[in-house]
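Table S4 entry, 2-hydroxyacid dehydrogenase.
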Amino acid sequence: MRIAILDDYQQVARDLADWSQLPDGAGLTVFDRPLGDEDAVAAALEPFDVLVIMRERTPFPAALIGRLPNLRLLVTTGARNNSIDLAACAARGITVSGTRMVGTPTAELTWGLILALAKRIPAEERALRDGRWQTGLTDDLEGRRLGLVGLGKLGTKVARIGQAFGMEVVAWSQNLTDERAAEAGVARVGKRELFATSDVISLHLVLGDRTRGVVGAEEIGAMKPTALFVNTSRAGLVDEAALIHALRHGHIGGAGIDVFPIEPLPADSLWLGLPNTVLTPHLGYVTRENYAVFYRDALEDILAWTAGSPVRLLSPV
């Protein structure tokens, strides 16, 4: 049995699980960098029976799955992975298993980005190293309005932290009710009102057919010129061109972005030249604790599958 671990950017996969438990004769290969285009991925992975992939780094569409004749088990970190064609896997008889996640690290990163923007932490740190002292004013959060697009587990955690800072918190999503909002101590408002009145806006929706492009030019155009925009969910929720235009022309106060349409971010990306942004390389789930669960569960998935009793199965809807 040949097993490959993909996209181990931090080179930690071998240390975070006891791979010596693999069956005798199993070979383990670790790829620590993106493999390239679909042709390169297919060529590199063609020999492998089992693949362990990091959620939504290397995509597995039907065309690629069809070019991997030896693949029998695909393990993805996390309980869902929108970049896998599960129907194509099912048609080929390929088992797909997921893993657990722990905590709400994305909520913590969300607040890291909000604070970095409001308190000008990256800009002032760079200025200080360049010999300049106090180059701009920072903003208070107390008494300001935090607008959450989505109020699930992550959105609720972000809301509670905002309330601890003394912020007024409002929320909107397609299915949000007054009762659910009240449970979180949040006011439900209309989508237009949220974007027009919030001082900080943060996205916490799952990307799907109903939510793709949910933040478009109209919503961005309604924002205050001082408002901060944070996206730690998915790039596809937002009209990227409209957001870049607003930032480039100073129509909004700034943005903290952790997710991008192309990842890793290309060296010529427009994002890298934008003013008043704090950018992070999709760090929302990249914690020591999560990775330990990811790889230990992945090993458990492989052992369960080899024993004929696969666990944490992912199937097409």
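The chain is about 30% helix and 15% strand.
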